[in-house]
Design goal:
Layout (H helix, E strand, L loop, with lengths): L4 E9 L4 E9 L11 H14 L3 H4 L4 E6 L1 H5 L11 E5 L7 H12 L3 E4 L17 E5 L9 H7 L5 E7 L3 H9 L3 E4 L15 H12 L7 H9 L2 H14 L10 H8 L1 H16 L5 H17 L9 H9 L3 H5 L3 H5 L6 H9 L2 H15 L4 H9 L3 H18 L3
Parallel strand pairs: 2-3, 3-4, 4-5, 5-6, 6-7, 7-8
Antiparallel strand pairs: 1-2, 1-8
Pfam families: HDOD (PF08668)
InterPro entries: dGMP_Pdiesterase_EAL/HD-GYP (IPR014408), EAL_sf (IPR035919), HDOD (IPR013976), RNase_Y/CdgJ (IPR052340)
Protein name: EAL and modified HD-GYP domain-containing signal transduction protein
């Protein structure tokens, strides 16, 4: 019996804006298709994320890049999706057969965007150029400079180039010079450390705002004082609360009113989310969204008996899991400026302890990366299907916040 879960990887443009996510069926911790019929993999992806209603939630309203084999295409699985919401990724093809040409031209005529993957530079694929909108290249297998002659051949067809397996920010400039338009990989998780970097007053203020949420009971006056220095903070907080407080019919207009409707714990979460949004730049937008989803998913999983003793720390740990990238400062330096509990520090700095395991399980689950996923779910007895359901819910929640 396979353990089923869906991983996603962001695809970003040259301005670090997320254009969509590649969604893949996984049953193993190595982020590859399982050793079963890939047609079954794509079928299950559709069932889990479309028929159950949540491909848009998982992708936060962005494009979903989905692998389709020839058999899936013949069975017209893509037609189950809105053509504006997906990109068809061609996989498992060794050559552009007459059958494949007929299939691809059909979907092109229907208005679907099509991406050619596993591209090997062979001129035989030029036959597909009139029908496709993107070519994806694994830069670990093909030197990007070899694409230079291809750029001129694809220009008349307005085909975009996407680089896969981009691991460092250093690679981005070279890829842009070659002519790549989009990038997929873990480069945006790599912190760009700036020597001698100090925190701007506004960022220090936001870290102080986060720190205030650790006070028990919550000090409304202190939080209100920090927020009052910027009218946009107050407006932003109340807008965010009203976006998700759908169970109330009364518009929430103050911190104390928000606490009355939401409870102190949820209000704390909203305050920390607001602070994170103010620390986020365009360049760290994607990693901040992932931190929000990580925080929400960690909070839910921590209710499981195995993680109950760290449940009070789960949300804030997930939220701060990207702070190093966002602030461009070493995590060791950042944690010294905040009154964080020891389990949170150990989890963030070294991924140690029960809270560290929860952080690793959650963050690796979201992107399908890391060998520890299966091991940790088995050790702690957490059902992978349950995690998937809550991942979808956390993604929907992130989108509903309306802050990115």
């Amino acid at each position: 019996m396979y353990i089923t879960y869906i991983a996603r990887q962001a695809i970003l443009d040259r301005n670090s804006k997320t254009i969509g996510y590649e969604l893949l069926f996984r049953d193993s911790p190595d982020n590859k298709f399982p050793e079963i019929d890939p047609d079954v993999a794509s079928s299950k992806l559709i069932i889990q994320n479309h028929l159950q209603g949540d491909i848009q939630s998982v992708c936060l309203g962005k494009l979903a890049f989905i692998n389709f084999t020839e058999k899936c295409l013949i069975n017209k699985y893509p037609l189950m999706f809105d053509k504006k919401s997906i990109v068809i990724e061609l996989v498992g093809h060794s050559s552009p057969t007459d059958k494949l040409l007929k299939i691809v031209s059909f979907y092109c005529e229907q208005g679907y965007k099509i991406a050619l993957t596993q591209y090997d530079l062979n001129p035989k694929w030029d036959l597909l150029f009139p029908f496709i909108s993107m070519i994806k290249v694994n830069i670990e297998e093909i030197n990007p400079k070899r694409l230079l002659p291809i750029v001129n051949r694809i220009k008349p067809f307005n085909i975009k180039l996407a680089a896969e397996k981009v691991e460092t920010n250093f690679q981005l400039q070279a890829l842009a010079e070659v002519g790549f338009n989009y990038y997929q990989g873990f480069f945006y998780h790599e912190p760009e450390m700036i020597e001698g970097q100090t925190l701007a007053p506004m960022k220090t203020q936001m870290l102080n705002l986060i720190s205030e949420t650790f006070n028990v009971p919550l000090n409304y006056s202190a939080i209100a004082d920090i927020i009052s220095h910027d009218v946009n903070l107050t407006v932003g907080l109340l807008k965010m609360v009203n976006n998700v407080a759908t169970s109330t019919r009364v518009e929430i207009t103050s911190l104390k009113q928000a606490a009355a409707y939401l409870g102190e714990e949820k209000l704390k979460q909203f305050v920390t989310i607001l602070a994170l949004s103010k620390l986020t730049s365009d360049k760290s937008d994607e990693v901040s969204k992932q931190a929000l989803i990580t925080a929400k998913l960690m909070s839910v999983i921590s209710k499981h008996q195995a993680f109950s003793e760290v449940s009070d720390y789960a949300f804030i740990t997930g939220l701060l899991s990207a702070i190093e990238v966002i602030l461009c400062m070493p995590i060791e330096t950042i944690v010294k400026t905040m009154p964080l509990a020891d389990p949170i520090v150990k989890a963030l700095v070294k991924h140690e302890g029960l809270l560290g395991d929860l952080l690793v399980l959650t963050s690796n689950y979201i992107v399908g990366e890391g060998h520890s996923i299966t091991k940790l779910t088995e050790v702690y007895g957490v059902d992978a299907n349950y995690i998937h359901t809550e991942f979808v819910a956390a993604s929907r929640w992130c989108k509903e916040l309306g802050i990115f």
